[in-house]
Amino acid sequence: MLTGCQKDANVEVDPSEKTFPIGLWVSPPLDQITMERYAEIKESGINFISGFTEHLGGEKAIKQALDYAEANGIKMLVRDPRLDALTEETMGELASIVSAYSDHPAYMGQMVDDEPSMNEYKALAPLAEAYRKQVPGGIPFVNLFPTYASLEQKGGDYRSYLDEYFDTYKPEVLSYDHYPFLKKAEDGTAGITEDYFYNLELIRQKSLEQSVPFWLFIQTLSFNNSHRDPSGEEILWQVYTSLAYGAKGIQYFTYWTPQSGAETFGPAMIDLDGNRTKHYDEVKSVNADITRFASRLLDWTSLGVTHYPSNPPLIEATSADTQVVSGIAGDAVIIGYFKDEDGNKKAIVVNGSYEKEAVTKLTLDPSIDKLTLWDEAEPRETAVEDNRLTLNLAPGAGVLVEFWE
Amino acid sequence: MKAKLLNRFSLLITVIFVLSLVLSACSGSNGANNSTNAGNTGGKPAEGAEGSSEEPKVLKVAFFQGGYGDSWFKELKKEFEAAHSNVTVELEGDPGIMDKMGPRFESGANLPDIAFLTNTNWQQWASQGYLTDLTDVFESSIKSQLNEAGQKYAIYQDKAYVIPWSDGVLGMAYNKGMFEENGWKVPETWAEFNELAPKIKAKGIAPIVYPGKVIGYWDFVVKPMIVQAGGFDYLDQLLTMDNPDVLNNPAKLTALQSFENLFKNDWILKGSEGLNHTESQMEFVNGKAAMIPNGNWLEAEMKASTPEGFRMAMMKVPAIEGAKEPNVQFSMVGDITVIPAKAKEQELAKEFLTFASSEAMNRKFTELTGNFRPFKYSLEGIEVSEFTQSVMDIMQNNKPFTFNTTSPMFMKMGLYPAGDAYGNIVFGSKTAEQQFNEDVKFAADKWDKYKEELGLK
């Protein structure tokens, strides 16, 4: 079962059945809704799809997509624009629309909106309310803007944007997008958005405050004249930094390459001709890496994030409520701290660079005498020596460390 | 910026997005990290060094690096430092500066002392306390120099929070060389246009080309027609939008019908609907069409692609019959200069702002960029292109208007709430009258709901 959205605390999920949500944006086009294409999605390590153009083929195509998804162990958020047209007066039609497919085993929820302004929340809320009554347990999915969206787009400042979202829409999942990999500078510098970590931190805090998991989008392609084609290391880095901040689900933007129009796009994981690009294998590798442990993260609570050697822009102080790491030396790292349900401390340590290897030494609290390191195919337990842990991280890579007293 | 595959676009967002691309297109600096950072090593004398006894200061100046480039800012830096021996001006020019400023304001970190930014809903920043109240410097040294559109734009809730940065014209550009070769008079009314268009077509040339993929460019023609027909009183009513009936005004219908006639009469270059803004501009400079809805950035943006000898100019949007205000110009005032409330060097930033608003620096802006500041200043002795001169002529001889507004209802409802007016009319899914009537009905039907959603009493 895809989790990360257990708003109802009374719903118990067998831990062995938990799956860390790994999704995609821009599903195969109508003429590519085939068993082979959905098997290909599965092979990449993706386990849920956000519907995109299936509705153009009517209910038949939506159901076909759901069938292929089910056959491949994938879930689906269905996009059905008929819901967009519903008004307060016609909201009763929602039941007949969604009941056509909401009982399908692969059905996960409904795409409601992407990047709404906060002025739109009040209009969306009745739809979500009606939906929840009709499909208990389904997700009326909305995805939010990043911090760098304009005032016009958001309708206000970002904190208000989030506050109003929770007050009005009351989501099951806090999802947002933020694409950090900007076009390279004239000197070749491959930088990121100034507010990447600032956005992550605001979302992390809101997620904790509201006890609602957060998901986000991972950039896999270049677009417009502003964002570069990310390397495999950069994709890996964005995934790991997201996990370090406590993300409980990710989606790849995009899977299939979108047609360029007013916006222009480079190749995603599958190009316009339907061929796998290098990004397909890169994402497949990333997914294989994180699915070793990611389902565990679903039950952990984020304690905070430390950036070494210095804080990222716009964040004046970072803190982590943990005693486990008392010192850091060496190359730059980002450490996300967690605790499990028993209070045991965990950390995801991420290379601060997606271009260089990192060798970093952590000084551990003397109370820590054992670690579980997830730096190989299988987790390994190791005793702590001299209160030190030295980590070697490839560019963009991260490692999960579990601390035991 | 858009940064996500969307199923919905508003015209406003489209036009803002395209304008930001346009303004960045000709600078050659399209990467978000292609920034100008000039001034960290200004060689300024340290405290106590010869020629300076004042504490060394750094003034951080951020600006949108786009169609105006960075030359003016480098000049400002040079001249300001020359006049302030203890000051180093650090420039941060960035095509992506608008993406950065919101988070900087909200976090209070990494703020420049003064910023030159593109049009945005800055009134929200002001109401959040992010912007310094500039009323003192506005009243004492800047207001009297600003043009009418600039003076009006600076004020929010009776205070000045911004000083407009640039000005210009949105309207119609035309092939001046072609017009002169053929002895065509630039039409001042649509009646004159109706007489001219067949003559153009007889030459195998389309009267107009437009960017179908950025159909919001038609705002540059239709909005002037609305103001022509309805006058400034109607414009005020629209921008205030305090009741749904404001959309039920014949001025708006007249404008839409005039727009519709361009297509009914087949005066549009075939295939325009599939063109983006640069493609349509290429058709224009290659002589396939005589006129194109556009703005004062056109010449600079197309500099590299314009054939040798091609001559272009801006023309005033022809006046509709019976216009209340036949001589209006759609001002581009909207880009802003602000001082963040948490900026370190408040007083120095105000000095810089006043300096940048001086006659000398305003002239320098036009000289270096071919564009305009929203001030009243002399251009005598400045060599400008024929195109720039035409823009200046329009600005100086017509009443400026903008569609800048703080009305949340206008921002939500828009001019065409029933849908994409231009697209509907162009592709024949609605007539102008149908669009007009549906807009009126939509506004009436949704009024109370929108008021509630916006928290309006």
From TrEMBL, chain A:
The keyword Membrane does not apply. Signal peptide: none annotated. The keyword Hydrolase applies. Gene3D superfamilies: Glycosidases. It comes from the Bacteria. Keywords: Glycosidase, Hydrolase. This is Beta-galactosidase. It comes from Paenibacillus mendelii.
UniProtKB/TrEMBL annotation, chain B:
InterPro entries: Bact_solute-bd_prot1, SBP. The keyword Signal applies. It holds the Pfam family SBP_bac_1. Residues 32-53 are annotated as: Disordered. Keywords: Cell membrane, Lipoprotein, Membrane, Palmitate, Signal. The keyword Lipoprotein applies. This is ABC transporter substrate-binding protein.
